Amino acid sequence: MPERYYEEKHFIEDISLYFEQMGIPRMAGRILGVLLIANPPEQSIDDLCEQLQASKSAISTSARLLSEMGLIERAPSPLPRRVYFRFQPGGWIKFMRMYLRMMASLHGIAERGLELLKDEDPTLSERLQEAHDMFSLIEDELPMLLKRIEEKRQI
Prior knowledge:
This protein has helices at 3-21, 26-37, 45-52, 56-68, 91-116, 126-153, and strands at 43-44, 72-75, 84-87. It has 155 residues and is mainly alpha-helical. It folds into two domains: 3-87, Orthogonal Bundle (Arc Repressor Mutant, subunit A), CATH 1.10.10; 91-153, Helix Hairpins (Orthogonal Bundle), CATH 1.10.287.160. A hairpin with an 8-residue loop joins strand 2 (72-75) and strand 3 (84-87).
Protein backbone atom coordinates (compact mmCIF):
# COMPACT_ATOMS: atom_id res chain seq x y z
CA MET A 1 0.00 0.00 0.00
CA PRO A 2 1.24 3.52 -0.78
CA GLU A 3 2.23 5.79 2.10
CA ARG A 4 -0.69 8.15 1.39
CA TYR A 5 -3.13 5.31 2.13
CA TYR A 6 -1.73 4.97 5.65
CA GLU A 7 -1.64 8.73 6.15
CA GLU A 8 -5.32 8.96 5.17
CA LYS A 9 -6.25 6.11 7.52
CA HIS A 10 -4.34 7.82 10.32
CA PHE A 11 -6.09 11.15 9.64
CA ILE A 12 -9.52 9.46 9.63
CA GLU A 13 -8.73 7.71 12.90
CA ASP A 14 -7.48 10.96 14.48
CA ILE A 15 -10.77 12.68 13.60
CA SER A 16 -12.74 9.72 14.98
CA LEU A 17 -10.82 9.75 18.26
CA TYR A 18 -11.26 13.50 18.63
CA PHE A 19 -15.02 13.26 18.14
CA GLU A 20 -15.20 10.25 20.45
CA GLN A 21 -13.64 12.40 23.19
CA MET A 22 -16.50 14.85 22.62
CA GLY A 23 -19.03 12.05 23.22
CA ILE A 24 -19.81 11.52 19.55
CA PRO A 25 -19.72 7.95 18.23
CA ARG A 26 -16.43 6.96 16.70
CA MET A 27 -18.10 5.86 13.45
CA ALA A 28 -19.47 9.37 12.99
CA GLY A 29 -15.94 10.71 13.35
CA ARG A 30 -14.68 8.21 10.80
CA ILE A 31 -17.34 9.23 8.29
CA LEU A 32 -16.49 12.87 8.85
CA GLY A 33 -12.79 12.11 8.42
CA VAL A 34 -13.45 10.40 5.09
CA LEU A 35 -15.66 13.22 3.83
CA LEU A 36 -13.14 15.88 4.81
CA ILE A 37 -10.49 14.41 2.49
CA ALA A 38 -12.59 12.52 -0.09
CA ASN A 39 -12.00 12.96 -3.79
CA PRO A 40 -14.62 13.30 -5.13
CA PRO A 41 -16.19 15.10 -2.17
CA GLU A 42 -19.46 13.17 -2.59
CA GLN A 43 -19.33 9.61 -1.30
CA SER A 44 -22.09 7.01 -1.47
CA ILE A 45 -23.11 4.90 1.49
CA ASP A 46 -21.57 1.94 -0.37
CA ASP A 47 -18.29 3.86 -0.76
CA LEU A 48 -18.26 4.67 2.96
CA CYS A 49 -19.11 1.07 3.89
CA GLU A 50 -16.21 -0.21 1.81
CA GLN A 51 -13.69 2.34 2.98
CA LEU A 52 -14.61 2.04 6.66
CA GLN A 53 -15.41 -1.69 6.66
CA ALA A 54 -18.76 -0.94 8.26
CA SER A 55 -22.39 -1.93 7.76
CA LYS A 56 -24.91 0.24 5.95
CA SER A 57 -26.89 0.65 9.16
CA ALA A 58 -23.80 1.88 11.05
CA ILE A 59 -23.00 4.34 8.27
CA SER A 60 -26.60 5.48 7.94
CA THR A 61 -27.09 6.02 11.69
CA SER A 62 -23.86 7.99 12.07
CA ALA A 63 -24.45 9.97 8.88
CA ARG A 64 -27.86 11.01 10.22
CA LEU A 65 -26.19 12.27 13.41
CA LEU A 66 -23.58 14.25 11.45
CA SER A 67 -26.33 15.68 9.28
CA GLU A 68 -28.31 16.79 12.35
CA MET A 69 -25.15 18.46 13.64
CA GLY A 70 -24.86 20.43 10.38
CA LEU A 71 -21.53 18.90 9.39
CA ILE A 72 -22.59 16.80 6.41
CA GLU A 73 -25.44 16.79 3.93
CA ARG A 74 -26.96 14.52 1.35
CA ALA A 75 -25.51 15.20 -2.06
CA PRO A 76 -27.17 14.81 -5.44
CA SER A 77 -26.79 11.26 -6.68
CA PRO A 78 -25.58 10.47 -10.18
CA LEU A 79 -27.28 7.06 -9.85
CA PRO A 80 -30.91 6.33 -9.06
CA ARG A 81 -31.72 5.14 -5.53
CA ARG A 82 -28.21 5.79 -4.24
CA VAL A 83 -27.56 8.00 -1.26
CA TYR A 84 -24.47 10.21 -1.34
CA PHE A 85 -23.06 12.43 1.38
CA ARG A 86 -20.57 15.28 1.44
CA PHE A 87 -19.17 17.71 3.97
CA GLN A 88 -21.61 20.59 4.15
CA PRO A 89 -20.27 23.99 3.08
CA GLY A 90 -20.20 26.09 6.24
CA GLY A 91 -20.50 22.90 8.29
CA TRP A 92 -18.02 23.98 10.94
CA ILE A 93 -19.95 27.23 11.48
CA LYS A 94 -23.23 25.30 11.83
CA PHE A 95 -21.52 22.87 14.21
CA MET A 96 -20.23 25.72 16.38
CA ARG A 97 -23.65 27.40 16.40
CA MET A 98 -25.16 24.14 17.65
CA TYR A 99 -22.65 24.09 20.51
CA LEU A 100 -23.35 27.75 21.21
CA ARG A 101 -27.06 26.92 21.65
CA MET A 102 -26.11 24.09 24.02
CA MET A 103 -23.89 26.43 26.04
CA ALA A 104 -26.68 29.01 26.17
CA SER A 105 -28.94 26.35 27.70
CA LEU A 106 -26.31 25.49 30.27
CA HIS A 107 -25.86 29.20 30.96
CA GLY A 108 -29.57 29.43 31.78
CA ILE A 109 -29.30 26.43 34.10
CA ALA A 110 -26.31 28.02 35.85
CA GLU A 111 -28.36 31.21 36.35
CA ARG A 112 -31.15 29.17 37.95
CA GLY A 113 -28.58 27.52 40.23
CA LEU A 114 -27.20 30.91 41.25
CA GLU A 115 -30.74 32.04 42.05
CA LEU A 116 -31.18 28.96 44.26
CA LEU A 117 -28.01 29.84 46.18
CA LYS A 118 -28.52 33.63 46.41
CA ASP A 119 -29.20 33.55 50.15
CA GLU A 120 -26.47 31.01 50.94
CA ASP A 121 -22.78 31.38 51.76
CA PRO A 122 -21.16 33.01 48.66
CA THR A 123 -18.49 30.31 48.54
CA LEU A 124 -21.20 27.78 47.63
CA SER A 125 -21.96 29.60 44.38
CA GLU A 126 -18.34 29.91 43.15
CA ARG A 127 -18.59 26.84 40.92
CA LEU A 128 -21.80 28.05 39.31
CA GLN A 129 -20.50 31.60 39.05
CA GLU A 130 -17.47 30.34 37.10
CA ALA A 131 -19.76 28.51 34.66
CA HIS A 132 -22.06 31.53 34.40
CA ASP A 133 -19.19 33.91 33.68
CA MET A 134 -17.62 31.59 31.12
CA PHE A 135 -20.89 30.97 29.27
CA SER A 136 -21.72 34.69 29.34
CA LEU A 137 -18.42 35.49 27.67
CA ILE A 138 -18.85 32.72 25.09
CA GLU A 139 -22.39 33.92 24.30
CA ASP A 140 -21.12 37.48 23.92
CA GLU A 141 -18.02 36.78 21.86
CA LEU A 142 -18.55 33.61 19.81
CA PRO A 143 -21.43 34.87 17.63
CA MET A 144 -19.34 37.85 16.53
CA LEU A 145 -16.38 35.59 15.79
CA LEU A 146 -18.55 33.21 13.75
CA LYS A 147 -20.00 36.16 11.84
CA ARG A 148 -16.50 37.40 11.01
CA ILE A 149 -15.53 33.94 9.79
CA GLU A 150 -18.68 33.74 7.63
CA GLU A 151 -17.99 37.16 6.14
CA LYS A 152 -14.37 36.29 5.47
CA ARG A 153 -15.34 33.01 3.80
CA GLN A 154 -18.49 34.54 2.27
CA ILE A 155 -20.63 31.67 3.52
